[in-house]
Amino acid sequence: MTDAFPVTVFHNPACGTSRNVVAMVEAAGYRPEVVEYLKAGWTADQLAALFAEAGLTPREAMRGKGTPAAELGLLDPDVSDAAILAAMVEHPVLVNRPIVRTPKGAAMCRPSEKVFDLLEQTPDRFVKEDGEVVSRG
Predict the structure, then answer these.
(1) Among 21, 28, 69, 107, which is most buried by a count of CB atoms within 10 Å?
(2) Are strands 8-11 and 99-102 parallel, antiparallel or unpaired?
(3) Which helix (H) or strand (E) element contains residue 99?
(4) 15 counts as catalytic
(5) Which residue is catalytic, options 8, 15, 29, 46?
């Protein structure tokens, strides 16, 4: 395992895509910093910087499914990015996952294979939780 190339995964352990990303990073030989953001929470500045690095707006990074987004009125197209960001700080589950940051940048890794674009080395083959085989090359 290598710590020379830092990898941070903003992770929700209840999410299969997020679990696959952590496993893919580990299979590639990295020891990621795993941030369970539902426990750790977010600050508005942290989210704004992460989204900017990933090229995402708060709306693009918002998860609607299984969250209070609809009941909070956040799905209305007139809701501002600032309002969405404030809601994400109050309700961390509103942030879609996983988001990964490395020296190569940051990205929302959906589908999970997107994480390979952020790594210097990748496994030749990886089997996801659902049995899907991912091959590089």
Answers:
(1) 21
(2) antiparallel
(3) strand 99-102
(4) yes
(5) 15
